[in-house]
């Protein structure tokens, strides 16, 4: 049975999600011990462990998963329990399909999660922790996501974290073309951020990379790279700083800003004026008019919270962005959820059919073995025209039609085990479940 333990932006604080986003790459291997397989999806806004357990999932399986995650992450098990929710059986399917489609994201419909779901499966394959059922689950999740993207307006209604962050920043930036922008980071988020900044008219953009990749990124995108020696001063005098690195320690703090401003300016706002359009949140308080905006898109956090104590500085982080996510466009969301539900129903129907397929194949094989023996006997008795053979084959087909149809009906009702038990009882046939056959074939 499939089991999912999830901690996400709806159930857990961001600092806990930060820690979970740094779980070891081989965590799925630890979770798969004693199970058929495991896939781990760890992003900045969610941590999910999908485990294919033997038999029916129970509280002991959940406890084992949480205990393993606790050991590997250093987070107390009771903290994980309080910040997690559990899905089992059919609920796992619709949950992952919703996650992959962006319906469970901070910003509904954002597209980054689809790639993260695919990479989670790729990582599990790399570490040899998938199972046939998990493979089917994640592959069908990607198919559901593509249908949602192609058939609904959810992707257009939902906005990425980068785009939403800059829309919130619009309330502070009077003229993007006059803004001095400092981008800290050179990964995928940085490239998306740069493109979105240019859409808004920003052109005075510099980049700093704590890992030393700034020059290559700057050359590729036609912007200026800042050496480490210039970082503090550039940070102190930027209109807006956007951080999006994978660094585990803050890359910007109050000390860096004060160093860049120098003693004479340490207590004064930076000279770049911004529009007075307060947004409630971290450093975005009514009545304040900060002249420098820092947007932290990092997970773990790239910016120390103490920057908000520097005069004239406002900090916008992922938690604040989540609080200001726009209301979902109901029509697009409803259409997307309908697609997800239909895809989940199809997944269960196909899975149910597959669960009885070995028994159906065993029954048909048994009947046709008997049939061939009787046909051979008829031939020896002189069935020269083949009329007896034809009649016997027709009769076998008629006799098999009802139990085959009934098997699929029972499977659709979740009663496939009854058909399997009947075949075993009446004919003495033992059929391995489809997943076990797949395992044997790949062993």
UniProtKB/TrEMBL annotation:
Residues 336-429 form the Tetrapyrrole biosynthesis glutamyl-tRNA reductase dimerisation domain. The record marks 95 as: Important for activity. Keywords: NADP, Oxidoreductase, Porphyrin biosynthesis. The keyword Lipoprotein does not apply. It comes from the Bacteria. Pfam families: GlutR_dimer, GlutR_N, Shikimate_DH. It catalyses: (S)-4-amino-5-oxopentanoate + tRNA(Glu) + NADP(+) = L-glutamyl-tRNA(Glu) + NADPH + H(+). The active site is at residue 44. GO terms for biological process: protoporphyrinogen IX biosynthetic process from glutamate. Substrate binds at residues 43-46, 105, 110-112, 116. Residues 5-152 form the Glutamyl-tRNA reductase N-terminal domain. InterPro entries: 4pyrrol_synth_GluRdtase, 4pyrrol_synth_GluRdtase_dimer, 4pyrrol_synth_GluRdtase_N, GluRdtase_CS, GluRdtase_dimer_dom_sf, GluRdtase_N_sf, NAD(P)-bd_dom_sf, Shikm_DH/Glu-tRNA_Rdtase. Its EC number is 1.2.1.70. Pathway: Porphyrin-containing compound metabolism; protoporphyrin-IX biosynthesis; 5-aminolevulinate from L-glutamyl-tRNA(Glu): step 1/2. One of its GO terms (molecular function) is NADP binding. PROSITE patterns: GLUTR (PS00747). Residues 167-259 form the Quinate/shikimate 5-dehydrogenase/glutamyl-tRNA reductase domain. Homodimer. Belongs to the glutamyl-tRNA reductase family. Possesses an unusual extended V-shaped dimeric structure with each monomer consisting of three distinct domains arranged along a curved 'spinal' alpha-helix. The N-terminal catalytic domain specifically recognizes the glutamate moiety of the substrate. The second domain is the NADPH-binding domain, and the third C-terminal domain is responsible for dimerization. During catalysis, the active site Cys acts as a nucleophile attacking the alpha-carbonyl group of tRNA-bound glutamate with the formation of a thioester intermediate between enzyme and glutamate, and the concomitant release of tRNA(Glu). The thioester intermediate is finally reduced by direct hydride transfer from NADPH, to form the product GSA. Catalyzes the NADPH-dependent reduction of glutamyl-tRNA(Glu) to glutamate 1-semialdehyde (GSA). HAMAP family: Glu_tRNA_reductase. This is Glutamyl-tRNA reductase. The gene is hemA.
């Amino acid at each position: 049975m499939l089991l999912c333990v999830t901690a996400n932006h709806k159930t857990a604080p961001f600092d806990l999600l930060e820690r979970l986003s740094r779980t070891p790459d081989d965590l799925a291997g630890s979770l798969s011990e004693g199970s058929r397989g495991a896939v781990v999806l760890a992003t900045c806004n969610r941590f999910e462990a999908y485990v294919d357990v033997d038999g029916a999932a129970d509280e002991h399986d959940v406890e084992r998963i949480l205990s393993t995650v606790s050991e590997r992450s250093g987070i107390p098990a009771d903290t994980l329990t309080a910040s997690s929710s559990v899905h089992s059986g059919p609920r796992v399917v619709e949950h992952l399909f919703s996650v992959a489609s962006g319906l469970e994201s901070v910003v509904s419909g954002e597209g980054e999660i689809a790639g993260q779901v695919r990479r989670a499966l790729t990582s599990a394959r790399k570490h040899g922790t998938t199972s046939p059922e998990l493979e089917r689950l994640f592959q069908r999740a990607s198919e559901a996501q593509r249908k949602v993207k192609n058939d609904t307006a959810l992707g257009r209604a939902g906005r990425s974290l980068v785009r939403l962050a800059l829309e919130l920043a619009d309330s502070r930036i009077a003229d993007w073309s006059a803004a001095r922008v400092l981008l800290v980071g050179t990964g995928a988020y940085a490239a998306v951020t740069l493109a979105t900044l240019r859409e808004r008219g920003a052109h005075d953009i510099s980049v700093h990379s704590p890992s030393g990749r700034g020059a290559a990124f700057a050359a590729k995108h036609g912007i200026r790279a800042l050496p480490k020696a210039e970082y503090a001063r550039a940070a102190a005098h930027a209109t807006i700083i956007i951080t999006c690195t994978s660094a585990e320690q803050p890359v910007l703090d109050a000390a860096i800003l004060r160093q860049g401003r120098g003693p004479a300016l340490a207590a004064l706002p930076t000279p770049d004026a911004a529009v007075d359009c307060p947004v409630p949140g971290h450093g975005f308080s009514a009545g304040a008019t900060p002249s420098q905006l820092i947007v932290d898109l990092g997970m773990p956090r790239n910016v120390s919270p103490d920057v908000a104590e520097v005069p004239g500085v406002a900090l916008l982080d992922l938690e604040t962005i989540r609080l200001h996510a726009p209301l979902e466009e109901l029509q697009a969301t409803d259409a997307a959820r309908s697609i997800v539900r239909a895809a989940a129903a199809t997944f269960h129907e196909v899975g149910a059919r597959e669960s009885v397929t070995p028994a159906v194949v065993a029954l048909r094989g048994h009947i046709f073995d008997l049939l061939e023996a009787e046909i051979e006997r008829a031939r020896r008795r002189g069935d020269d025209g083949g009329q007896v053979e034809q009649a016997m084959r027709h009769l076998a087909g008629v006799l098999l039609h009802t139990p085959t149809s009934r098997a699929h009906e029972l499977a659709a009702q979740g009663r496939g085990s009854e058909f399997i038990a009947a075949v075993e009882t009446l004919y003495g046939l033992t059929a391995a479940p489809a997943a076990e056959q797949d395992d044997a074939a790949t062993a």
